[in-house]
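Here is the promised in-class demo. Please do not try to memorize the tokens; focus on the logic of going from shape to residues.
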């Protein structure tokens, strides 16, 4: 099909041209004396993205799922208990892993469309006088439902209960897109991956670990090998890895971090909120549809899950969008399969890219019988963005236009 594929799943995201060029490198010896020049700058800048002074960043050649396993196996001993809530497919999968690895999970089930139930966590932690709960798990941004949870509030609940458990956070679809503050929020382990806000192909699992978590690792009796924090930290301290690292991805990460720090994290968070708000305007004001997220406090700035009308299979919307319009949308997963489709709006993107995605989505919905007014979503998004853009508009005088055409040798109108 002619033209570019419009990739608007919530990961993998678009890879900037600068990052793609940075990954086109000749292979080199990962034991050379030059190699640490690359890795040491990466680890230093990752700490800025995690917003930590005292945490230790670690990179595993894996997905974020590998870092879930690393978090659990490094800091828990067999049979120990974690507190977790299930409100989407990815929070569910982390809980499922807990059991597979031989740990226990006290699970709070929530409606899919809500986030971490902070008040319920507080009740459970206050009642846990013997401190059998060793870790609290929280998915910062639940990609399946487009829900963001309040990690700072979870830390406040843990502190109010005077509970010593570790706070482990999945920030796979929020890091470098939605505000995350490891030190300020008292996060002990933050798990992420390369293919979302870091704007890389999948393949790097990235985790940041607090001193408290590393102290817990020293007491853990859980077997581990590949995902051992100790082996990684020992090698990383000299600028190397204990096994062969993916050089092109590391070169891409170096460039991605440069792009992120050039734009500035605060501006990135503002941009994501601004763009996401335009998408929500399209869904709610233009198409008159509902989000899976049940209240504004849960709205995600990286992905919107849109509920289709009764009698429509959302998979049909996704299939038509892809086959007819070369637009990739995210599918509904597990409990919301067939009920929602997802628009990812994170990473390297702007208003015009999203206008294309919204236009393609409108056409696909119309093709499968969803009765939306053609152009309504695009118009609502444009109205929001034009009304909330903080870049000042400048009126160009006719004399400036004439001068510009003369200076470029334009013959327009001749």
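The designed amino acids, position by position:
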């Amino acid at each position: 099909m002619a033209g570019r594929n419009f990739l608007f799943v919530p990961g993998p995201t678009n890879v900037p041209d600068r990052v793609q060029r940075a990954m086109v490198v000749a292979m080199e010896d990962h034991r050379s004396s030059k190699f640490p020049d690359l890795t040491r700058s990466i680890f230093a800048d990752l700490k800025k993205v995690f917003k930590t002074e005292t945490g230790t960043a670690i990179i595993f050649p894996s997905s974020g799922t590998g870092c879930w396993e690393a978090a659990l196996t490094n800091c828990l001993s067999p049979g120990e208990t974690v507190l977790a809530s299930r409100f989407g497919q990815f929070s569910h999968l982390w809980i499922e892993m807990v059991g597979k690895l031989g740990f226990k999970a006290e699970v709070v089930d929530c409606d899919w469309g809500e986030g971490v139930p902070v008040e319920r966590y507080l009740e459970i932690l206050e009642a846990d006088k013997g401190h059998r709960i060793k870790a609290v798990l929280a998915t910062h941004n639940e990609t399946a439902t487009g829900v963001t949870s309040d990690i700072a509030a979870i830390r406040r609940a843990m502190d109010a209960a005077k509970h010593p458990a570790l706070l482990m956070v999945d920030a796979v679809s929020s890091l470098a897109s939605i505000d995350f503050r490891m030190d300020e929020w008292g996060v002990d382990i933050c798990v992420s991956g390369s293919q979302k806000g870091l704007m890389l192909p999948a393949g790097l699992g990235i985790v940041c670990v607090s001193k408290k978590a590393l102290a817990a690792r020293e007491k853990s009796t859980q077997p581990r090998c590949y995902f051992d924090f100790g082996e990684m930290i020992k090698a990383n301290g000299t600028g190397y890895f204990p096994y062969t690292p993916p050089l092109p991805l590391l070169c891409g990460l170096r460039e991605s971090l440069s792009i992120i720090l050039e734009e500035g994290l605060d501006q990135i968070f503002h941009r994501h909120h601004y763009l996401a708000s335009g998408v929500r305007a399209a869904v709610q004001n233009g198409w008159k549809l509902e989000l899976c997220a049940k209240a504004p406090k849960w709205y995600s700035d990286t992905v919107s899950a849109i509920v289709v009308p009764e009698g429509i299979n959302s998979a049909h919307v996704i299939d038509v969008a892809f086959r007819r319009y070369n637009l990739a949308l995210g599918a509904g997963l597990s409990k919301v399969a067939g009920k929602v489709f997802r628009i990812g709006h994170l990473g390297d993107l702007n208003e015009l890219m999203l206008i294309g995605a919204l236009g393609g989505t409108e056409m696909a919905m119309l093709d499968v019988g969803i009765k939306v007014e053609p152009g309504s979503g695009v118009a609502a998004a444009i109205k929001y963005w034009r009304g909330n853009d903080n870049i000042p508009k400048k009126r160009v005088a006719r004399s400036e236009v004439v001068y510009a055409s003369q200076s470029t040798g334009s013959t327009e109108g001749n």
